[in-house]
Amino acid sequence: MRLKAMLAVVLSCIPYAKAEMEWQSSTSIDLSTRQYNGSPMRASQLDREFDAKLMWELDFENPKTGLSGGFKPVLSASKNEGVRTFDIQEAYITRSFSQGQLNVGVNTVFWGVAESRHLVDIVNQKQPTRNLDNESKLGELLLHYQHFTDNGHWFAMSLPYFRERDFGLPDDRLSLPLAVTDEQFVGRDANYRGSYLLGYRGVLGDWDVGAYYFDGIDREPVIRPNDNQKFDAIYRRLQQTALDLQWTSEYLLGKVEAVHRQHQMGGKSWAYVVGAEYYFYGIANSNKDLSLLMELHRDTEEQVNLNRLYQDATFIGMRLVWNDVDDTSMITGILIDNDTGAHTIKTEFSTRLSSHLSLALEANLFLEQTQRDATYGFKDDDFIELRLTYYL
User: Fold this and answer.
1) DSSP 376
2) Per-residue CA distances from 251 to 198, 278, 321 (Å)
3) At 30, which helix (H) or strand (E)?
4) Hey, what long-range contacts does 78-82 have (CB within 8 A, 24 or more apart)?
5) Least confident segment among 23-32, 186-195, 247-256, 292-301
6) Mean pLDDT, residues 30-47
């Protein structure tokens, strides 16, 4: 596409660049280094990575016309592989009406209430080569209309294009053992790869409620070996009904995400994550808040390897928030396969070092992995990452 479509959206913004516009821009540089387990599964895999990102963000708004928008290009470079990506995460314009809002362009959206899996979050393509938690996403071209009511909003979304997943190369860590060399599409016309989504989000008493229906191409492909000793990525048509709920009280959050899927290849399946987060405010007479998390997973879909990670699993975690001016926080947790006993431990810490500099640490461990486990191929990819972000 995709670059041409993205640039077309950007150029469409130019006629709106009038003197009445209010503009804001920011630039940041992100430097990170990741140290992996020193005994990789494949000898060609490196132990250390150095990456850099240059991000520029431009926002504009015209209060008189209700027009606003954003533009966010990202240039990424790696010491190991040279300059490798230029992407546009945001390039959109928004028009607000009395009871509605129309958003057109490339954007990134986040949905869901659970901590350990974002089951209902289906719009943007994910980047598993950086992390398996699907929190790293690509911008998606979309036409998004929202109609507001007293307690929520209805919305419709059209996604006319589709972005294939980047699996990296076998030399990368957290990668497949063979390269993905071909894509196949099942259940869609070869020349049409669009999707649409209808939904509702609102607040009913103590409940936050979201309900969605998606018809299009599943962002999560099935990986199959081909005759050339490589892999094919098979993208299937998906019709999915989804629900997320969050119940809020003073000390407790109850969370549910659930989906029912109908795949063109693989038939019907369902999955859910249900859990709770309990808060202890001002622990030890300090400003810090501590919360304990527990989430249960079930998933009956077996065509996608990583879905088996949540076939029967339990997540137990802890979140610590300092409530300071540096926005310091830490979350750590363990995902346990209730069948095999394999577990994955993840910890994230972030804080601001100054008004221009922030620090983030992340660590991942894959423990007690067996050949039956979905993450067995990553059993030697334990890592710790240090990331510094400088805001110009």
Assistant:
1) G
2) 33, 6, 15
3) strand 22-36
4) 78/49, 78/50, 78/51, 78/52, 79/49, 79/50, 79/51, 80/46, 80/49, 80/50
5) 186-195
6) 87
